[in-house]
Design goal:
Length: 501
């Protein structure tokens, strides 16, 4: 029987009757496994009101007490990794090792958020003029809306709200309606960690819930991760309602391979970073740009057998390299992108259409697909394809590869493979991407560096995680202070400091 996935408000699961709902599928089998409740406006307002009043207390709670909760939350996430990975795999379709990997990245960001007392320390200038001292303090912004995508049901939200909560805010989280269950597990762990009721709330749903969050006057800031079209909308609507908004959006990540590169390493990197998680990653390598035809031909020889050796299977198959796509709609959209690239003149090297997995004929599987001779006028170059279809653009020179990379609308991640330090340095200086890899295929920075793309991969200021995330979730106040001498105070024995009293 299908289960029903509801919300979490004021420290308790919250079920609303007579509400809209949508199906949740197991992409590995294509079965509908549960229904996700879509919160009404009243329910979102209840969550926001709860979060707002909880933020007033949590924001005044000492660093020491907040950190005790953060440390406990970290321990609990670690203790529950296996069950969380199972929940992720069942609703998302990614393999268990992949799911464990994303939880691991989430844990790193909880650990970094435990540095918040240090990161949020203010500045102090003594005696700027006439005994005046000036200092800054940083305060939480209040109730924060978090809107997250399907492709990282735990990592993206955790990296987002670990810092938001650690610095004293409360959260209203709207997970992707395609992967709603992990949110309730996470909420349960926060409660068990001792987070006061109301600081962390989950409202499930779709656009209507997002709109209510974006319009609500008691939401001070919104963090969004998802597609570019939706992210731009969230940014514009949120900022027009006077909220701070940071939206992290789509990517089309280029990997330039110079003729002098270690081609074996580059080929392995392209295959793992390109096809892992069925390429449903914003930091996946999408396009390979070998410099020179000889580099392209040699790479192709190395890549094709590696791609053919990839095993596609259900999330719980320990031998699977990647799993199903998130939905049948998504599978059809990716198949359309393959058809189109063929029509536009891309050379199909490997075709994943018509692929199925034994015993799971209705799963949303697509085999790995590769196009050679992609050009910049094709949709395969222009669009983010969220499925295992990768393209090769043959560049004549480093300059041409750079130009192709920088001309793209997206600027999430870019990678160069080379043995030449000067070429790598030049790339690092010239490429217009937020995250850059040098002989590293997925330059997802560690938790204590800032994460965020450029151009249409990000709307608004701030970073998703890293020290800059603490800035996004806090407001500055600057105090100029003078204490005039007070004869009575200094001489009065009754007011004098008495360490024994
Ligand atoms: P999506 O934009 O469809 O959904 C993201 C969130 O927005 C979900 O919670 C969804 O319910 C909500 N939403 C969907 N349509 C909406 C609408 N019209 N109005 C308001 N809200 C709406 O994204 P997705 O398919 O879940 O995730 C994949 C996308 O996320 C890809 O484009 C990927 O590149 C991007 N992504 C980016 C990053 C990054 O850090 N830049 C990280 C992960 C994923």
């Amino acid at each position: 029987m299908n289960s029903y996935i509801g919300h979490f408000i004021a420290g308790e699961p919250y079920v609303e009757s007579n509400t809209r709902s949508g199906p949740v599928y197991n992409p590995s089998t294509g079965e509908e496994i549960s229904r996700c409740a879509y919160a009404s406006r009243d329910t979102v307002e209840k969550a926001v009101a709860t979060a707002k009043s909880a933020s007033e207390v949590w924001g005044k709670t000492s660093h020491a007490k907040r950190l005790a909760v953060m440390f406990k939350f970290r321990e609990l996430v670690i203790a529950n990794m296996d069950s969380l990975a199972e929940v992720i795999g069942r609703e998302h379709g990614k393999t268990i090792p992949d799911a464990l990997g994303e939880i691991g990245r989430g844990i790193e960001s909880i650990e970094f958020a435990c540095n918040e007392p240090h990161i949020t320390k203010g500045e102090y200038s003594n005696n700027v003029a006439g005994d005046i001292d000036v200092f800054s303090i940083r305060r939480p912004i209040g109730a924060v809306g978090c809107i997250t995508p399907f492709n990282f049901p735990v990592m993206v939200p955790v990296v987002m709200f670990a810092m938001a909560v650690a610095v004293g805010n409360s959260v209203v989280w709207k997970p992707s309606e395609k992967v709603p269950s992990a949110a309730l597990e996470i909420a349960r762990l926060w409660k068990e960690a001792g987070l006061p009721d109301g600081v962390f709330n989950v409202v499930q749903g779709d656009k209507e819930v997002v709109d209510t969050i974006l319009e609500h006057p008691d939401i001070a800031g919104v963090s969004f991760v998802g597609s570019t079209a939706v992210g731009e909308y969230v940014y514009q609507k949120g900022t027009s309602n006077n909220k701070r908004v940071a939206a992290f959006t789509g990517g089309k990540n280029h990997m330039v391979v110079m003729p002098d590169a270690d081609l074996e390493a580059a080929a392995t990197a392209f295959v793992t970073a390109g096809y892992g998680s069925a390429s449903q990653r914003c930091m996946a390598v999408s396009l390979l740009l070998p410099v020179g035809d000889e580099t392209a031909d040699r790479l192709l020889e190395l890549i094709v057998p590696k791609i053919k050796a990839l095993k596609v299977g259900p999330y719980n198959d320990p031998k699977a390299d990647f799993g199903a796509l998130i939905s049948s709609e998504s599978k059809m959209a990716v198949e359309r992108a393959i058809d189109r690239c063929e029509q536009e003149g891309g050379k199909l090297v490997l075709d994943g259409r018509g692929f199925s997995v034994e015993d799971h004929p209705n799963g949303y599987y697509l085999g790995p697909t590769l196009f050679d001779h992609v050009s910049t006028d094709m949709q395969m170059y222009k669009e983010e394809v969220f499925g295992p279809v990768r393209g090769i653009i043959r560049a004549k020179s480093y300059e041409e590869a750079l130009k192709i990379t920088n001309r793209h609308d997206y600027g999430n991640g870019s990678v160069i493979y080379t043995r030449d330090g000067k070429a790598a340095h030049r790339f690092m200086m010239e490429v217009e991407s937020g995250m850059i890899g040098v002989n590293v295929p997925v330059p997802l920075p560690t938790s204590y560096f800032n994460f965020g793309g450029l151009r249409e991969s990000k709307f608004g200021e701030g970073h998703l995680y890293g020290p800059d995330a603490a800035r996004f979730y806090t407001k500055y106040k600057t105090v100029s202070q003078r204490w005039p001498e007070h004869d009575n105070m200094i001489s009065s024995s009754s007011l004098a400091f008495n360490p024994i009293a």
